[in-house]
Amino acid sequence: MSFNGFTEEDFNVFTVEGLEPRMDQLKGKIRPKLEELGHHFAPTLSSLVGDEMYYHVAKHARRKVNPPKDTWVAIANSNRGYKMLPHFQIGLFETHLFVWFAVIYECPIKQQFAEQLLSQMNTIKQQIPSHFVWSGDHTKPEATSHQEADLEALFERLRDVKKAEILCGIHIDRNDPIVSNGAELIKRIDETFTTLAPLYRLTSPIHN
After folding, report:
1. Long-range contacts made by residues 62-65, C-beta under 8 angstroms, separation at least 24?
2. pLDDT tens, 159-170?
3. Around Cβ 143, how many Cβ atoms within 10 Å?
4. Are 170 and 179 in contact, with CB atoms under 8 Å apart?
5. Order of strands, edge to edge, in the sheet holding 144-145?
6. What is the dihedral angle through the alpha carbons of 116, 118, 123, 129, rounded to the nearest 10 degrees?
7. What is the DSSP code (8-state) at residue 50?
8. Which pLDDT score is estimated for 206?
9. Across residues 74-96, what is the average pLDDT?
10. How far apart are CA 44 and CA 200, in angstroms?
11. CA gap 185, 52 in Å, rounded
């Protein structure tokens, strides 16, 4: 795959004022790259997790006023959608690129998955590398490093709070040279998905 990576211009799209002007820039600059990544990684993830995976590039169709602060491609085991399923994401905020495994608030198996996470917590602590990060809200750019995250509190919140979410993965600063090096970035994303695949597999008995 001859992917060219992301540029300063791509990240600067999130500074464009107004919904329509920003959406025009997103569609022209970033969406084709997310399509490329989705096309490349859907078969890779299918092999990794044992489910047929399909990619979905964010359309931001519900937005009427506020321009999006981030955008992404999501990869899940349905061609109809991803929000109700455990899934993987590659995307951008203005400050960084993110690569996630995600279970967000629409997913109906959150409680069962949280119980799985709690039962496997010690294994997860050991398996996830220290430079990975955790988040409880996919709409916010902030995340907590694996070393500092209170996993028990995150997992219990996922179990007990209706709007709770769980995301695990990496952030890459927009100024990191790997972001604009397509081949190296593909390799880093591939390594990240390989590391995250066991989290997805914990959901398989629940959602399949």
Report:
1. 63/19, 63/23, 64/19, 65/19
2. 999 899 999 999
3. 21
4. no
5. 54-57, 70-76, 87-93, 96-103, 166-173, 133-135, 144-145
6. 100
7. S
8. 65
9. 96
10. 14
11. 24
CA 104/CA 127 separation, integer angstroms: 22
Rounded distance between C-alpha atoms, residue 70 and residue 161, angstroms = 24
Q: Which two tokens stand for residue 13?
A: 């799209």
What letter would DSSP give residue 68? P
Task: Enter the tokens of residue 202.
Answer: 């914990």
* CA separation, residue 130 to residues 34, 167, 185 (Å): 27, 15, 19
Q: For residues 51 and 207, what is the distance between their CA atoms, to the nearest angstrom?
A: 11
> Using alpha carbons only, what angle is made at residue 29 by residues 23 and 35, rounded to the nearest 5 degrees?
95
C-alpha torsion 69→75→77→83, nearest 10 = 0
Q: Determine the longest span between alpha carbons in the chain, in angstroms.
A: 47
8 Å CB contact between 53 and 37: no
| pLDDT for the residue 104 | 93
Three-state DSSP class for residue 206:
helix
Residue 114 to residue 154: CA distance in whole angstroms: 9
Hunting for tokens 């937005």 — which residue is that? 63
